[in-house]
Amino acid sequence: MLAIMASVPAHKTAEAFLDAYLRELAGIGNRSAYTIRNYRHDIGHFLAYCRETKREPLAVNRQVFREYLGGLREGGMVAASITRRTSTVHGFYRYLHQQEATERDLLYGIALPKRPKRLPKVLDPALVSALLAAPPLDTPQGLRDRAMLELLYGAGLRISELVALDTASLDLDEGRTLVRGKGAKERVVLFGEPAAQAIEAYLRDGRGALATGAEPALFLNRFGNRLTARSVQTMIKHHATAAGIAEDVHPHLLRHSFATHLLDGGADLRIVQDLLGHSSANTTQIYTHVSQARQAEVTLAAWEQVAEQALEGPRRKQRRRDAS
């Protein structure tokens, strides 16, 4: 341990390394400000734990980290969040070893907690149709909201991708646009005629009434500025309520529905993967389970209906005998 500490400059604390690590992730790694904020919170929480328990962060071991994770579990943190925290902190300690702040990766071999498999929720197509029809088409805001909903569902966009769209990135003739997804990866997104028509109506009759300057953003708020993700979330919940949808509707629910409905319709998994911008087919695979589960429910309901119809004949005969 003394050898480890001797190799670390006196002024270079774990917190200083953390600042450098996050700067590197933001610059070279192209991580978003939201991701950087989460990393700082997760890693900073563990460093604070080390200080509170009188441990030097640059000289901890796996047992200390396991004790920390045990405290998170006892505090009620869900398994998925603990898994994320484990991965984030371990990434920082790999960085410390690369920077020769430690003689080895102090958390090497730490196991990730198993994450429970939860199938994403999906909106029924009829409810999607009701949601898309909810915005009024006689106001600039209504035309804008309809276009956003059509893109979120019809193209499977993430909310961050939606609000980052500029008018110059659209190709309405070809029904496509260029978006920048996670890790600043660019991809071409396709959308159908309903979305294209909704965007055209918004550009023709809505956006000009909202614009106050040379803002390049496609979707504008009432002040003529780019819409925020929070505003879009609020908008969706408003229209879901207006459409009489009791479920909690959020932007990613429309993305889940987009993927699942494509697979329901027979789309190839690889195509859905490309449209969603997933780097691995394993991420997209979850939607095949949703699709299969939905098909199983439909099949069961159909068999129950057949069984009910088969029993109805004998029941009618029995009622006629009882009546006579």
> Rg, please?
26 Å
What is the rounded distance between the termini?
A: 96 Å
Q: What is the annotated CATH architecture of the domain at 125-251?
A: Orthogonal Bundle
For the secondary structure, the number of strands is: 3
Total DSSP helices: 14
* CATH topological fold name of the domain at 125-251: hpI Integrase, Chain A
* Strand order across the largest sheet: 1-2-3
Structure class: mainly alpha
Strand content: under 5%
Average pLDDT, to the nearest integer? 81
Query: What share of residues is helical?
Result: 55-70%
Q: Which shape, going by the Cα principal axes?
A: globular
Helix and strand succession? HHHHHHHHEEEHHHHHH
CATH class of the domain at 125-251: Mainly Alpha
Biggest sheet architecture: 3 strands, antiparallel
Give an overview in words.
With about 325 residues, this protein is mostly helical. Among the domains are: about 1-100, DNA polymerase, domain 1 (Orthogonal Bundle), CATH 1.10.150; about 125-250, Intergrase catalytic core (hpI Integrase, Chain A), CATH 1.10.443. Helices cover about 60% and strands about 5% of the residues. The chain is built from 14 helices and 3 strands. The chain has helices spanning about 1-5, 15-25, 35-50, 60-75, 80-100, 125-130, 140-155, 160-165, 195-205, 205-210, 230-240, 250-265, 270-275, 280-324; strands at about 170, 175-180, 185-190. It has a 3-stranded antiparallel beta sheet with strand order 1-2-3. β1 and β2 form a beta hairpin. Mean pLDDT is about 80; it is low at about 1-10 and about 290-305.
